[in-house]
């Protein structure tokens, strides 16, 4: 048999029907649903008199719109309220489990799938959300789809999709001190560009990836879409199995044994060829921060705002000019001199317990700089409960940060958590597009530790310097 | 779905690369539960200022381009979120085709499934179309899916689309209808699916 990549194995297994080079019919093992991209899909089913083929493979939550304070009170914005209500009704009508507001499993869709043990190696997972790539950390083939495809999956439990190409991003070597998974992810996007992985499924390999915890792998896979990749994957290993054992939906008993046997095959065979390979030397990665309006526009924290003329490619140069104008930044300004008024710690990129621990470690015993608003938003209710059990909420509160309920919050500001025009935010989320966190708002992407450092210093700060000062 | 065969219309030049879906339709307009009515919010932040007045200089606010049906833009068009609302907003505004050197994958798929034709041309061809549309706004552009060509003024370009996708668009058939013909294969696949795979029914819902 020919040598195959991890992606090939998962794709081939799920191919129900292949017709030449055209789209294949691909079986979907798990369909995650949220309130924003699903109402029109359910409406489509009703209009055509169709039903949900596999409600048992479909799970819904409410995350994008929900307020993160007083979450149980009625939503004030009538349009948000209608969207949340539509999901509740659609789930009831079609027999779909909904872990919505008030449920102890509610949370950002890409946080709850893994923590509930729904996300399993070797499966196919889709969601009407581009950051579905997050689930690839488990060796699942997971990707975002649009609403028409949501309807397609609801109706048929399959998708028609053209086979993407495969790409290996190998990160070898030793990470310098202070470099987190977020910095690795930003480094990858910077190296390959906003469209560098277009049409590809990326498999992350190498010693750095192997050494990562599951939460770190999720952060890495989460940003795959920011370089245009269809999905990101990491081959499952002991770390994966240890994370999944005993989770609510993880298989048990004989099924668990069968799963372990199947998962042990889930790795790229020796000699299997990727369509593209990119090598990244860990030693060259640094704690990073974005200066522009795409996630690829980042530099090391010790660097300066770049001069657009330093880009050879005319379209990159032009996009840098526009980005600096929007961001209100002057070339040559050291990143550490950029003053922020808002800090957002949360999202499906960095809203998990390890992220909160890392931010709390920096904020412990310190105060938020005056005039800075800091929102700490756990990725799920379960993360929230755990953080409270560990006393992290107390550390954040004592420092002067706001401790919130779970949701997407200021990652995209569909709920009341938004930036005002001209406000500048250090954010652990994944997108710094114009207006993403609120019209006219300016976003700098960075890791939870660096976001916490920015919170206490009131400006973008090299967390390593902050730590050094204490010891 | 409305079939797409041939479109005659005005070219609208949007000379930017990495046009992301947050720009095409900002999130505050994603709360509707309908598929229509998004046109007025297309490119909202570029089109209107804080007071809601039209910004002079943005291409859609220029009278000759207002009723254009073929958008031409830079590379990596539609990057960012999976929101199909971006496609709906372009269609609701009146666009029937978008021409660019490259598209983000999810946007490309969404466009096809809604009948908005994504046309991928070489970087130089797109540059020529952008320049032509800027210099001569009245030039007519013809996008012909049947023979895979784009023509405007002196320019004639060829584009390719996967044969199945092309057939579906030409006939206006949606994917679901097509897939429902393979229910037998889907059921057979399900019957052989390993027992350890995810299933929500496995767990009693907690209180
Ligand atoms: S946290 Fe942000 S990126 Fe993640 S699902 Fe929510 S809005 Fe999307």
UniProtKB/TrEMBL annotation, chain A:
Pfam families: Aconitase
Stretches assigned to the Aconitase/3-isopropylmalate dehydratase large subunit alpha/beta/alpha domain: 8-458
Known EC number: 4.2.1.33
Pathway: Amino-acid biosynthesis; L-leucine biosynthesis; L-leucine from 3-methyl-2-oxobutanoate: step 2/4
Entry's Gene Ontology molecular function annotations: 3-isopropylmalate dehydratase activity; 4 iron, 4 sulfur cluster binding; metal ion binding
GO biological process, any: L-leucine biosynthetic process
EC supergroup of this enzyme: lyase
Catalytic activities: (2R,3S)-3-isopropylmalate = (2S)-2-isopropylmalate
InterPro entries (UniProt xref): 3-IsopropMal_deHydase_lsu, Acnase/IPM_dHydase_lsu_aba_1/3, Acoase/IPM_deHydtase_lsu_aba, Aconitase_4Fe-4S_BS, Aconitase_4Fe-4S_dom, IPM_dehydratase_rel_enz, IPMI_cat
Cofactor section: [4Fe-4S] cluster
Cofactor, how bound (note): Binds 1 [4Fe-4S] cluster per subunit.
Keywords: 4Fe-4S, Amino-acid biosynthesis, Branched-chain amino acid biosynthesis, Iron, Iron-sulfur, Leucine biosynthesis, Lyase, Metal-binding
Binding of [4Fe-4S] cluster, residues: 348, 408, 411
Functional summary from the UniProt entry: Catalyzes the isomerization between 2-isopropylmalate and 3-isopropylmalate, via the formation of 2-isopropylmaleate.
Oligomeric and partner information: Heterodimer of LeuC and LeuD.
Recorded family membership: Belongs to the aconitase/IPM isomerase family. LeuC type 1 subfamily.
Protein name, entry field: 3-isopropylmalate dehydratase large subunit
Species assigned in the record: Candidatus Amunia macphersoniae
Primary gene name: leuC
Automatic annotation (TrEMBL), chain B:
Source taxon at top rank: Bacteria
GO molecular function: 3-isopropylmalate dehydratase activity
SUPFAM superfamilies hit by this protein: LeuD/IlvD-like
Gene Ontology process terms (BP): L-leucine biosynthetic process
Catalytic activity: (2R,3S)-3-isopropylmalate = (2S)-2-isopropylmalate
EC number per UniProt: 4.2.1.33
Broad enzyme group: lyase
Gene3D superfamilies: Aconitase, domain 4 (3.20.19.10)
Keywords in alphabetical order: Amino-acid biosynthesis, Branched-chain amino acid biosynthesis, Leucine biosynthesis, Lyase
InterPro entries: 3-IsopropMal_deHydase_ssu, Aconitase/3IPM_dehydase_swvl, AconitaseA/IPMdHydase_ssu_swvl, IPMI_Swivel, LeuD
GO CC annotations on file: 3-isopropylmalate dehydratase complex
Pathway info: Amino-acid biosynthesis; L-leucine biosynthesis; L-leucine from 3-methyl-2-oxobutanoate: step 2/4
Domain Aconitase A/isopropylmalate dehydratase small subunit swivel per the UniProt entry, residue ranges: 1-123
Function: Catalyzes the isomerization between 2-isopropylmalate and 3-isopropylmalate, via the formation of 2-isopropylmaleate.
Family the entry assigns: Belongs to the LeuD family. LeuD type 1 subfamily.
Assembly and oligomerization: Heterodimer of LeuC and LeuD.
Name this protein carries in UniProt: 3-isopropylmalate dehydratase small subunit
Organism annotation: Candidatus Amunia macphersoniae
């Amino acid at each position: 048999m020919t040598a195959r990549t991890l992606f090939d194995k998962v794709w081939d297994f799920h191919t129900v029907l292949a017709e030449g080079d055209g789209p294949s019919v691909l079986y979907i093992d798990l369909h995650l649903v949220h309130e924003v991209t699903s109402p029109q899909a359910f409406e489509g089913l009703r209009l055509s008199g169709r039903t949900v083929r596999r409600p048992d493979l479909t799970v819904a939550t409410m995350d994008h719109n929900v307020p993160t304070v007083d979450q149980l009170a009625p939503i004030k914005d009538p349009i948000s309220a209608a969207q949340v209500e539509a999901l509740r009704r659609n789930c009831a009508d079609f027999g779909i489990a909904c872990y919505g507001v008030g449920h102890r499993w509610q949370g950002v869709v890409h946080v709850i799938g893994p923590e509930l043990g729904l996300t399993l190696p070797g499966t196919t997972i889709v969601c009407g959300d581009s950051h579905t790539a997050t689930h690839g950390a488990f060796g699942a083939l997971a990707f975002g789809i649009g609403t028409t495809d949501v309807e397609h999956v609801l109706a048929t439990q399959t998708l028609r999709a053209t086979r993407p190409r495969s790409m290996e991003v190998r990160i070898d070597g030793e990470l310098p001190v202070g470099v987190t998974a977020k910095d690795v992810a930003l480094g990858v996007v910077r190296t390959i560009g906003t469209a560098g992985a277009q049409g590809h499924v990326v498999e992350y390999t190498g010693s750095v990836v192997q050494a990562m915890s599951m939460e770190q792998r999720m952060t890495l896979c989460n940003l795959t879409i920011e370089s245009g990749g269809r999905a990101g994957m990491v081959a499952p290993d002991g770390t994966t199995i240890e994370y999944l054992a005993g989770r609510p939906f993880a298989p048990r008993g004989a099924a668990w044994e069968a799963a372990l046997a199947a998962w042990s095959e889930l790795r790229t065979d020796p000699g299997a060829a990727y369509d593209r390979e990119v090598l990244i030397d860990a030693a060259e990665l640094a704690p990073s921060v974005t200066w522009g309006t795409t996630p690829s526009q980042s530099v090391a924290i010790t660097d300066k705002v770049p001069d657009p003329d330093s880009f050879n490619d005319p379209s990159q140069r032009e996009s840098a000019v526009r980005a600096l104008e929007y961001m209100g930044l002057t070339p040559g300004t050291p990143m550490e001199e950029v003053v922020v008024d808002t800090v957002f710690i949360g999202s499906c990129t960095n809203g998990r317990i390890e992220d909160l621990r890392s931010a709390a470690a920096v904020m412990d015993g310190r105060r938020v700089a005056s005039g800075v608003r800091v929102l700490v938003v756990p990725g799920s209710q379960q993360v929230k409960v755990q953080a409270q059990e560990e006393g992290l909420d107390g550390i954040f509160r004592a420092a002067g940060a706001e401790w919130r309920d779970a949701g997407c919050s200021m990652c995209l500001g569909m709920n009341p958590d938004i930036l005002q025009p001209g406000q500048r935010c250090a954010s652990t989320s994944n997108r710094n597009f114009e207006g993403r966190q609120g019209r006219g708002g300016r976003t700098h992407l960075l890791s939870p530790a660096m976001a916490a450092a920015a919170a206490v210093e009131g400006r973008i700060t090299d967390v390593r310097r902050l730590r050094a000062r204490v010891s | 779905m409305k079939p797409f065969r041939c479109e005659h219309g005005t070219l609208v030049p949007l000379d930017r690369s990495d046009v992301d879906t947050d720009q095409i339709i900002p999130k505050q307009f994603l709360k509707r539960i309908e598929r229509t009515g998004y046109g007025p919010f297309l490119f909202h932040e570029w089109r209107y200022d804080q007071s809601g007045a039209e910004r002079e200089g943005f291409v859609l606010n220029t009278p000759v381009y207002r009723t254009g049906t073929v958008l031409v833009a830079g590379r990596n068009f539609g990057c960012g979120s999976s929101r199909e609302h971006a496609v709906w907003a372009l269609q609701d505004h009146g666009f029937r085709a978008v021409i660019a050197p490259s598209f983000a994958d999810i946007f490309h798929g969404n466009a096809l499934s809604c009948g908005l034709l994504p046309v991928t041309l070489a970087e130089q061809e797109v540059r020529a179309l952008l320049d032509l549309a800027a210099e001569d706004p009245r030039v007519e552009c013809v996008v012909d899916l049947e023979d895979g060509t784009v023509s405007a003024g002196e320019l004639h370009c060829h584009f390719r689309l996967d044969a199945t996708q092309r057939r579906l668009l030409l006939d206006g058939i949606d994917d679901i209808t097509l897939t429902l013909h393979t229910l037998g294969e889907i059921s057979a696949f399900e019957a052989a699916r390993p027992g350890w795979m995810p299933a929500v029914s496995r767990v009693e819902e907690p209180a």
